[in-house]
Predict the 3D structure of the following.
Amino acid sequence: MHKKSLLTLSATLLLSVGISLSLSAATLVTNVKGYTLNEQGKLIQFKRLLVDDNGKVVSLDPNKVPAGTTKLDGHDKVLLPGLIDAHGHLLGLGGNLLEVDLRESGTMQEAAQWVAQYAMGHADQEWIKGRGWNQELWSDRSFPNAEVLD
């Protein structure tokens, strides 16, 4: 198994809610670029994370580590404890910000108008992408086409 895959799997198992862990002792994850928020919502960065035998985060950058603690090298990867997102297409969500959202368009002509407005505001983009329309909700039920879009 690749080290990256092992780290991802380990971090997921250690930090996910609802997963029962059966670790023999606490686990110290070292050599990470860790980020989390404190109670006030302030960003906290850390390089080491101590997790107890129940999978709960005990300490960030701990000074003392219990005897028998398992050590896991994070290989300088990003660790986000408490991020509970079992199925998030983060890259896709970010990409959506660079596209025309056509989900609420009521007609093909309205969708084309939204594309044109987006294009005027994003002249630096070589290609204009849009997504989310549902032609089945339009009165003519036809797909957008070049004649209308151009």
About this structure: The longest helix spans residues 108-121. The beta strands are 27-37, 43-46, 49-51, 57-60, 70-79, 100-101, 130-131.
